[in-house]
Design brief:
Blueprint: E1 6-10, H1 13-23, E2 31-35, H2 40-54, E3 58-67, E4 77-80, E5 82-86, E6 89-90, E7 97-98, E8 121-123, E9 132-136, H3 143-152, E10 156-160, H4 163-173, E11 177-186, H5 197-214
Parallel strand pairs: 1-2, 1-3, 3-11, 5-9, 9-10
Antiparallel strand pairs: 3-10, 4-11, 5-8, 6-7
Length: 216
């Protein structure tokens, strides 16, 4: 893989199919699309493996997410430069406490290689969009879950299950990352007949292409 190539990660085969069709051959010489798996654990492990094997210049995670309130529109795509972990710590629901509030970093850092500690929130280097993504080990099952998560992380506007894992892998490897999510549904809505998956993924693919075109 050439050092100038971008690695585009997609969680599932269904998402990958739509994203590949939407992107087509645009930027094909600079872009490689790979699956990262479902959920933060598989996504972190797979991203780390691909980073070591392919040594890309940059990583984009593309897929769907649920909006946590009315700040984001269903069917539209957004870039996230800040991602927060939810689920690593103590307790559940309204009793949940994030790891950092208990005095634990998820990664302590390594000064010998210039790595900073990683807590529950990672901010991407560069210009921020103001959009904060919450990454959960399990998606919200209903309004009560969404309310508990919003109470703890009020600036989070969308929920996914892979973003924080990919961001950690990239931070440890020293590789720039971007997260692009199409909003397919409201977080906590488990009626998939109400979801707008394909329009959300097509919008995400278009934003991914735009981001690639802007890159040096």
């Amino acid at each position: 893989m050439r050092p100038s190539t971008f690695l585009l990660l997609v969680p599932t085969a269904g998402e990958r199919r739509v994203v590949e069709q939407a992107i087509g051959s645009r930027g094909a010489e600079r872009l490689r699309i790979e699956l990262c798996g479902f959920g933060p654990i598989a996504a972190a492990a797979r991203a780390a493996h691909l980073l070591a094997a392919l040594k890309p210049a940059s990583v984009m995670l593309v897929g769907i997410a649920g909006a946590m309130d009315d700040r984001l529109a269903i069917g539209q795509a957004y870039r996230f430069d800040e991602v927060v972990s939810y689920g690593v710590g103590v307790g559940t629901g309204s009793d949940f406490q994030q790891a950092l509030s208990l005095g634990w970093s998820q990664w302590p850092g390594d000064s010998s290689v210039g790595q900073q500690a990683i807590g529950d929130r990672i901010v991407r280097t560069g210009t921020a969009t103001g959009h904060v993504l919450l990454t959960a080990c399990a998606a919200s099952a209903g309004p009560a879950d969404v309310a508990a998560r919003r109470a703890l992380i009020p600036d989070a506007v969308a929920e996914d299950m892979e973003g924080f894992g990919v961001a950690v892998a990239c931070e440890l490897a020293g590789v720039p990352w971007t997260i692009i999510r199409g909003i397919s549904n409201r977080a906590g809505d488990r009626d998939h007949s109400q979801w707008c998956v394909e329009p959300a993924l097509e919008a995400a693919a278009a934003l991914a292409h735009e981001t690639l075109a802007e890159a040096p």
